[in-house]
Each structure stands twice: as structure tokens, then as C-alpha cells.
Design brief:
This protein is an all-alpha fold. The protein has one domain. The protein contains five helices and no strands. The chain starts with a helix and ends with a helix.
């Protein structure tokens, strides 16, 4: 009987300590879309910082970000709300950024190979 109680106690303790999978609410940007948007934002910010200083058509980083959001048909408010959701859920944010970093690294390798 004591063994059974110990096993039940151990099992319930393990279940109580296990992390619950966080589900992305429908009103938030999906993980896949967030990965693509963040990739494009980082590329745009990179373009904004690498343009020649004397370039008369230089755009600000904010203008690039606004363009990316418009291109993906996402409002700034929805993006910021979704970004806050992912920031509040670090495991999800890490998963998103792992994908972003992998994709940016792949693009960099392709660029350097040319």
C-alpha cells in the first residue's frame, strides 16, 4: 500500500511540475508568420544601417519596419500586441527567434557564396 501511495504521489508531483504547452491565441500573429515578419524586419533594419550616409533617399528604420508590416498586411498595433505576447512567453519567443536566426544565417551564407 505504501508503495502504491508513493507512486501516486510521485506521479501527481511530476504532473504538477510539468510545463503546460502555451497555445497562441487566434488574435495573435501565428508563430510562422511572426518568424517571417521578424526576419524581414531584421533584414530591413540591417538595410537601414548599411546604406550610405550620403544617400539622399535614406529611409529610417521605422519607415522600413512600417513597410514590412504593410507588406505583410499587419497593423503596428497587432504586431506590438503579438510581440508582447511572445515576450511574455519566453519559450515561444525562443522558438520563434531560433527560426529567425537560422533563416538569417542561411541567407547570409547564400549571399557570401555568390
Amino acid at each position: 500500500m505504501k508503495k502504491l501511495l508513493a507512486i501516486i504521489f510521485l506521479f501527481t508531483t511530476l504532473l504538477a511540475c510539468s510545463k503546460k504547452k502555451v497555445v497562441v491565441p487566434e488574435q495573435m500573429i501565428s508563430m510562422k508568420d511572426m518568424q517571417i515578419i521578424l526576419r524581414d524586419i531584421h533584414l530591413a533594419q540591417s538595410a537601414a544601417t548599411t546604406e550610405s550616409i550620403s544617400d539622399s533617399s535614406k529611409y529610417s528604420a521605422k519607415e522600413y519596419v512600417n513597410y514590412v508590416l504593410k507588406d505583410h498586411k499587419v497593423t503596428r498595433e497587432k504586431f506590438l500586441e503579438s510581440l508582447k505576447f511572445y515576450t511574455d512567453n519566453p519559450a515561444l519567443l525562443e522558438e520563434v527567434y531560433d527560426s529567425v536566426i537560422t533563416e538569417l544565417s542561411r541567407l547570409q551564407a547564400e549571399s557570401e557564396a555568390k
